[in-house]
Task: structure prediction
Amino acid sequence: MATTTATRHSRRPSKTLLEPTGKEAESYEPPKLVVPVDPSRDHIQGDPKALLTLVEYGDYQCPFCGAAYPEVKKVQKELGAKLRFVFRNFPLTNVHEFAMDAAETAEAAATQGKFWEMHDFLYEHQRTLGDQSVALGYAKKIGLDTQKVERETSQHFYQKRIKDDFMGGVRSGVNGTPTFYVNGVRHDGPAEAEALVESLKAKS
Amino acid sequence: MRKSSSILNPGRKAPNFSLNSTPDQKVSLKDFRGQPVILAFYPADWSPVCTDQLSLYAMVMPEFKKFNAELLAISVDNIWSHLAFAKDRKLNFPVLSDFEPKGSISRKFGAYKEKIGESARALFVLDDKGVVRWSHLSPDGVNPGAEGILSALEQLNKPQT
Result:
């Protein structure tokens, strides 16, 4: 697991050969979110003016994001109105073949006012994720206009937005999924409720 | 920009190397003279997929290419592991094996951990003349992501101070 205490090495093979000393860990500062939360664009759950902000860059097909999903719910329950939660797309399409279809479906749901219903449905049915036809089945289940979803996802209406999310994440130091930002600073601890709450409270 | 006392620092000429990218093909650093080169030393193949540094770089490759940059990933894993790993993660850049003598190239860059016998997670951005213009050593267990590389590539086109 991640640890920031590097071991100091007393043995050096020769003065021409170099070795990490551990100093890098002492001066380490986690990266910051460079794309501020924008209520006119972002998917925000909770009071848009809440004191605390948790941003997740996630991939609907990533099992670690699936595992983090109930953890975020616990954080929201514990912090209540003090917290706003933001979800941004970071589909790792080279290793997750259905991640883009899922992200596009969620964005299509957002246009019909049901982003969070779809977001939750996708994580709760992660093992059944599939191609566009499966995604359309989900759209029907949560009561969307499926013809509209089909048209928009076939024409990849939302891919630019998803790719913009992705690149904004890259420039903010997203290094895998899920990556969380607590009040604008990357959370390098575990993606678990306890660690997230502790980090959120520490910065309030 | 971060400085480190141990890894090869900006301003230093990167030592040339020639390492296997497949069982019968070698890649030499000097082959890329004339374009920026990103060197990504990393501890081992097969870290969990969603948090894998090299899978992320495969996704960000189009951005690196905007700077005409080449990426070379290097670890001490053997070439057969590299081939399977690169195929599984759909890596679109050479993955080089610093296998024999083990870690000798990583050492030259100050990116070798003697006690555990793995390359450190160290990044270097070289300019078109093979001079280190940015280097970064990550704390243990922290995947550095791609942001530092992109910032360094942007800086390459600006006048040196």
